[in-house]
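Minutes, project check-in
Item: structure for the 209-residue chain
Input as provided by the requester:
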Amino acid sequence: MDSITKDHQITDVAALERLYGRPSGASVAKEIDYLHPHYQAMIAASPFVVLATSGPEGVDTSPRGDAPGFVAVEDEKTLLIPDRPGNNRVDSLRNIIADPHVALLFLIPGVGETLRVNGRAVITTAPALRERFRVGGKLPRSVIVVSVDTVFFQCSRAIFRSRLWDAARHIPRTSLPSLGTMVADISRSGFDAASYDNGLYERLKGSLY
């Protein structure tokens, strides 16, 4: 692949701008440094956000999901994200400790536009903040507090092209390898795929909070 791309590689911003041109109009006007009420409405409607972070060991993207509006708008410059149970790798949290810069991508089922937020994050275990996100008697272990730097919506071309929300395009989970099979084949460690897969989704649903 290197031999194919080397002669045509874009290596500087000037060459990139000659190829794509400069942004203008709505693509520039929509970017602001605070959470406008319209953008707050999109966050309140979103049950899913992708959190991007960067640290000494590289970059990471982490899916975060809960009931719509689970990311709380504290004020026009601040977002609160509860850290629900996961796999305990805490890659995103490790990165935030090393480098506070984060990026968020909010998705809303059935809506083509997405919302992008860039900012800086800290991790807190403040009891009052954790208490605000109690579900079924259970608290998040921590809350990610994001100070907003820039916010803008992304147009719907990617969603339209992918037909992401088109139920007719959804594929059955059984058309892909099971999670147990993937772990067993990748690790080559004698991992018991059948035992892992047995009742997996019921176990996951029982440990959401």
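Outcome recorded: The beta strands are 48-55, 58-65, 72-75, 78-83, 101-107, 114-124, 142-154.
No further action items on this chain.
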